[in-house]
Write a structure and sequence with these properties.
alpha/beta, Elongation Factor Tu (Ef-tu), domain 3, Rossmann fold, 3 domains, five-stranded parallel β-sheet, three-stranded antiparallel β-sheet
């Protein structure tokens, strides 16, 4: 442990970017919910109650699809303030909302049009698909959404390879296009009002435009501008390696300590794989550094990269940054290779910091020498905690012993999921406010 005199405290951050972004998203969604209701009412209720309900569910299903696109667009403004893991969580629940609203749309429409006829609801759907423009496309779109919803369940995710799951999810874009053309062809709001028609075209233009901007235009533009290449490959241990990336105008790249990129190394056998790795050093305008542990063939092959290898990087992503600080002093808790963003954050953070590094053995303490020197230079306290998982070395009493004023500090946490869950529970027990607890999991929306 290294202990030094605390430097003067820095002023806390007054702005709550996460709250601003979250409130903005909710406000946009609420405003559109009201707008849809108004346009729906203006179109009139010429059919029976079941058909009316079916049309309303269809409109809100379409609105949720547009909102879903916004969540997966990876727009920098939202990502830096909310974080990709939380956007992914919202994306998942919005997806289930789409599934149930569109199923309700189909059921109410089928029973509504079947009312008073000898043809059942299934026969009604078949007749509509054969005789009404756009209905067949809607049936196909609903089928795709049902399949995507099925493979999104936890039981299915555990049984599918990520590549398979991701490939199936790409068909969601096909469903979106089919749903748009269905809405244009038979949607009453399109046929009854030019204002409503303009509104819906605007909604879909913004949603699809956000996806194109965030998922294609920005990554392509940044890679053309910066021309990333491997500058050095440095083994840190038997199974951990650091990769130094250089390029042009890196001082113009809006990356911060704590963020991560999707790295695609353009070799013959790895160009198609993109892996999320955090920056393990604060960006200095000249190089970017990632540090990865061998967890599979892709990460194990990194130590064999050749100097000069071209790199396609998507990002920076993540809200695990000093942007969200609420207190002048902080606690940084790392577990295993989760030390990489923690080490970068320590380099950038001002004010007194306490760093707690949890590993099984001393040999597992990657970048520990760097942490020790950095802590000494910044006047931070560093605790290396080793030993088996049980007993809990980061239990509330242990945390309080190392950081008596932990409830008055920001806490940044990164490590294996079981450790993070346990520490988060311990922090709640110690009364650390939720707003002062910062963590992020590697979850990729869409």
């Amino acid at each position: 442990m290294t202990t030094t005199v605390k430097p003067p405290s820095a002023p806390p951050t007054a702005i709550r970017p996460k709250v601003v972004a979250r409130t903005g998203l909710y406000a946009v969604l609420a405003a559109n919910v009201v707008a849809v209701a108004v346009f729906f009412a203006q179109a009139g209720f010429a059919s029976n109650a079941l058909v009316v309900l079916g049309r309303l569910f269809g409109l809100y299903g379409a609105l949720l699809m547009a909102f879903q696109l916004l969540l997966v667009a990876r727009l920098p403004w939202l990502d830096r303030r909310i974080g990709m893991d939380r956007l992914t969580s919202w994306h998942r629940w919005t997806g289930f909302g789409i599934l149930w609203t569109l199923l309700a749309h189909a059921v109410f429409i089928a029973f509504g049009y079947a009312e008073g006829t000898d043809v059942g609801p299934i026969g009604t759907i078949v007749d509509l698909a054969e005789t009404t423009e756009g209905v067949l496309r809607a049936v196909v779109a609903l089928g795709i959404i049902v399949v995507v919803g099925a493979v999104s369940g936890r039981w299915a995710r555990r049984r599918l390879a990520y590549e398979t799951w991701h490939f199936i999810h790409f068909y969601t874009y096909v469903a979106v296009v089919l749903a748009i053309t269905h809405q244009v062809a038979v949607g009453t709001t399109f046929t009854s009002s030019s204002v409503a028609r303009t509104y819906w075209y605007g909604v879909w233009t913004v949603a699809l435009g956000a996806v194109v901007l965030g998922r294609a235009v920005l990554p392509l533009w940044r890679n053309l501008r910066h021309q990333f290449r491997v500058e050095a490959v440095v083994p840190e241990s038997d199974n951990v390696v650091s990769i130094y990336i250089t390029g042009r105008d890196l001082d113009k790249l809006p990356a911060r300590a704590g963020q991560f990129f999707l790295w695609r190394f353009l070799t013959k056998d790895r160009w198609w794989q993109a892996n999320p790795f955090s920056l393990s050093a604060a960006p200095d305008g000249r190089t970017l550094r990632l540090t990865a542990k061998a967890a599979g063939d892709g990460s194990a092959a990194l130590r064999h990269l050749q100097i000069g290898t071209r790199v396609f990087a998507e990002g920076p992503y993540g809200a695990f940054t000093a942007l969200h600080r609420t207190r002048p002093e902080s606690v940084l808790i790392a577990g295993g290779v989760g030390v990489t963003p923690i080490r970068a954050l320590l380099e950038e953070l001002h004010g007194h910091a306490v760093v707690i590094y949890r590993v099984a053995t001393d040999r597992d303490a990657v970048l520990y020498d760097e942490l020790r020197e950095l802590a000494r230079a910044k006047g931070a306290e560093l605790h290396l905690v080793t030993g088996p998982v049980q007993p809990d070395k980061l239990a509330p009493a242990e945390l309080l012993r190392m950081v008596p004023d932990i409830a008055d500090r920001d806490v940044f946490l990164c490590g294996p999921p079981p450790m993070m869950s346990a520490v988060l529970a311990n922090l709640r027990e110690l009364g650390v406010p939720k707003a002062q607890t910062h963590f992020e999991r590697f979850s990729l929306a869409g």
